[in-house]
Amino acid sequence: MKINGVQHRSVQVDPENNTDVLIFDQTKLPFSLETLRLTECAQVAHATTSMQVRGAPLIGAVAAYGLALALRVDSENTAMERDAAMLAATRPTAVNLRWAIDRMLAKLRPLTPEDRVAAAYAEAARICDEDVAQNEAIGRHGLDLIEKIEKKKNKSGRINILTHCNAGWIATVDWGTALAPIYMAHDAGYDVHVWVDETRPRNQGAALTAWELGSHGVPHTVIVDNAGGHLMQHGMADLVIVGTDRVTARGDVANKIGTYLKALAARDNDVPFWVALPSTTIDWSVNDGVREIPIEERSGLEVTNVTGQTADGRIETVRITPRESAAANPAFDVTPARLVTGLITERGRCAASAAGLRSLFPEKAGR
């Protein structure tokens, strides 16, 4: 995608030395666009836990490069397995992270230590390229949904799409998942408008989704998290598209906290609720998402404190709750498959069910 007319990916290897890994520091957005240079594995782990890098597909890709950085220091078996385990433990809910690490280890374990560094960089690059291709395909399959709404409206009236959290290109290597169909619809000339949930407590919608939609010229409006149901009741949302951090083999969906409530409101108001994901986000070993998916508990400070920009341009963090009040911060919730209209993957759309997923990925049946 482009920023000020310049093409960017969310992660790349520094072309000047072909070793350092460059990402955007997402904790600085939307007030400044800063590039973070990662030179060692520990920095990658910190960037992931601190959410300087976030988004299920992207943290997997960056972790793959993190292992490559680790191998530059020590490529022997014990060190490689230790560093891989450290990276995999940084975020427990998003399955892409473990998938990327497992794929890297499968490639690297048969090799001699001397051959591992070059192979690691090459495999991480393939993971990134595949992510871009998958997300572009998701965009094409999701675009058809928007085109059908436009035909239903007889090409008159704006198409209003609601999204939750950030599932755009800044959360992937490029294109995004939930936002990819929106970008394609906008670029094709469709009159699309996005309702952007603020997504408390970290405000990924208000800070990141709004920033990247604005950078691409897509009309959008930021709303408080609790406004979605009201909009649906009054016919102001034609479609909901969200991303996900893990999908079970039967179609349950783990996504940013608050997604479940949007799905309930969508079902009550007959608004289609679609989930966009690359197949790397499917956890074929898990069926019951509510009982089996680990939900990350983050610091209560994310709830009690808010960072923003003052009128004179300073970035300040302020407390918004009484000091004596405790705060809980589950980062994700699980939307049962029965509330999901369907899944948008790189292979097409399907029902959020075991049969639906098997129809697109028959080679995974029985796993």
From TrEMBL:
GO terms for biological process: L-methionine salvage from methylthioadenosine. Its EC number is 5.3.1.23. Pathway: Amino-acid biosynthesis; L-methionine biosynthesis via salvage pathway; L-methionine from S-methyl-5-thio-alpha-D-ribose 1-phosphate: step 1/6. It catalyses: 5-deoxy-alpha-D-ribose 1-phosphate = 5-deoxy-D-ribulose 1-phosphate; 5-(methylsulfanyl)-alpha-D-ribose 1-phosphate = 5-(methylsulfanyl)-D-ribulose 1-phosphate. The record marks 165 as: Transition state stabilizer. This is Methylthioribose-1-phosphate isomerase. One of its GO terms (molecular function) is S-methyl-5-thioribose-1-phosphate isomerase activity. Keywords: Amino-acid biosynthesis, Isomerase, Methionine biosynthesis. Pfam families: IF-2B. Gene3D superfamilies: translation initiation factor eif-2b, domain 1, Translation initiation factor eif-2b, domain 2. It comes from Acetobacter oeni. Catalyzes the interconversion of methylthioribose-1-phosphate (MTR-1-P) into methylthioribulose-1-phosphate (MTRu-1-P). Also catalyzes the interconversion of 5-deoxyribose 1-phosphate and 5-deoxyribulose 1-phosphate. Part of a bifunctional DHAP-shunt salvage pathway for SAM by-products. It comes from the Bacteria. The active site is at 245 (proton donor). Substrate binds at residues 54-56, 91, 204, 255-256.
